[in-house]
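Team,

Forwarding the record for the chain on the shared tracking sheet. I've put the sequence and predicted structure together so nobody has to dig through attachments.
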Amino acid sequence: MYIQRIYDDPQVGKVVLRKKVGVRRVSIRVSSRGVSVTLPFVATYDEALRFFLSKKEWVLKTMEKQRETVPGKVLSAQEVEQLRRQAADYLPESFATFVTMTILVLFIFCLNICSPTIC
């Protein structure tokens, strides 16, 4: 179980501050999805933020290394957010089409099983 808050850093972008049960120490993760700080459930978000800010130079260097070593284009936080919004707009329509087609196929299949002379 975890709860989280988002800190928007001007240089790094969104930093997820995540309290998690069973965690014993504060840690930072830098990945293609962004930066996250995991902390014990009993710790405060202020402690996590102070830890992040003390390690900010390391985070920036690590992000730069990842940009250099990952093949292809690395998207900025703004580009990722824009793609998420586009997907959120497109997927419900696409999913509705998928469900409609699936129901239609199942209906035709049931007609063929129940009365094969119709089709």
